[in-house]
């Protein structure tokens, strides 16, 4: 992949990558730093990408690895309730933020990629390197847990 193609492809997915990093990390400046590091690492490794059709899933996987590295470097998980309201219109209610935050990591990844970063089931499976059926199962489980959590939250408010 030449530099012009790489730059064009990065620009096509930059907003989606930023939104994903922001949802994972909860801090705009850290998300930008992780995005920059992701692009740098992807550029260095661009010769290893064998199929340009897989660019989006390939660079998203690099981003998720960088998000995990950043959380480890910090030594703690950044709470999603610190997330700015501008990150995602669908994510602006506190009960939803808290419910997603409480999900196990493998379920949270699917929810963020599928519903807030708008990846398809197949793209999510490719990014996470798991079978399509596993993503579908994790999605059902996550939605079930979110439903229970939000219904429980609603019953406390009533």
Automatic annotation (TrEMBL):
Assigned keywords, A-Z: Sigma factor, Transcription, Transcription regulation
The yes or no answer to whether the keyword Chloroplast is present is: no
Q: Which Pfam families match?
A: Sigma70_r2 (PF04542), Sigma70_r4_2 (PF08281)
Keyword Transcription regulation tagged: yes
The record's listing under Gene3D superfamilies reads:
1.10.1740.10, Winged helix-like DNA-binding domain superfamily/Winged helix DNA-binding domain
Q: Which GO terms describe its biological process?
A: DNA-templated transcription initiation
Check the record and name the InterPro entries matching this protein.
Answer: RNA_pol_sigma-70-like, RNA_pol_sigma-70_dom, RNA_pol_sigma70_r2, RNA_pol_sigma70_r4_t2, RNA_pol_sigma_r2, RNA_pol_sigma_r3/r4-like, WH-like_DNA-bd_sf
A Gene Ontology MF term for this entry? Answer: sigma factor activity
Q: Where is the RNA polymerase sigma-70 region domain?
A: 10-76
Domain named RNA polymerase sigma factor 70 region 4 type: residues: 96-144
Family named by the database record: Belongs to the sigma-70 factor family. ECF subfamily.
Q: What PANTHER family does UniProt report for this protein, alphabetically?
A: RNA POLYMERASE ECF-TYPE SIGMA FACTO, RNA POLYMERASE SIGMA FACTOR
Name assigned to this protein: RNA polymerase sigma factor SigV
Organism per entry: bioreactor metagenome
Instruction: Provide the organism lineage as a comma list.
Output: unclassified sequences, metagenomes, ecological metagenomes
């Amino acid at each position: 992949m030449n530099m012009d193609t790489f730059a064009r492809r990065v620009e096509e997915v930059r907003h989606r990558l930023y939104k994903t990093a922001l949802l994972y990390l909860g801090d705009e400046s850290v998300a930008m730093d992780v995005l920059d590091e992701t692009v740098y690492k992807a550029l260095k490794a661009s010769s290893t990408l064998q199929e340009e059709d897989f660019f989006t899933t390939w660079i998203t996987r690099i981003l998720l690895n960088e998000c995990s590295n950043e959380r480890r470097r910090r030594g703690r998980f950044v709470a999603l309730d610190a997330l700015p309201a501008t990150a995602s219109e669908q994510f602006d209610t506190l009960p939803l933020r808290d419910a997603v935050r409480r999900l196990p990591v493998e379920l949270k990844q699917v929810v963020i990629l599928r519903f807030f970063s708008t990846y398809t089931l197949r793209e999510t499976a490719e990014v996470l390197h798991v079978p399509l059926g596993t993503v579908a199962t994790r999605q059902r489980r996550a939605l079930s847990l979110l439903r229970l959590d939000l219904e429980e939250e609603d019953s406390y408010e009533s």
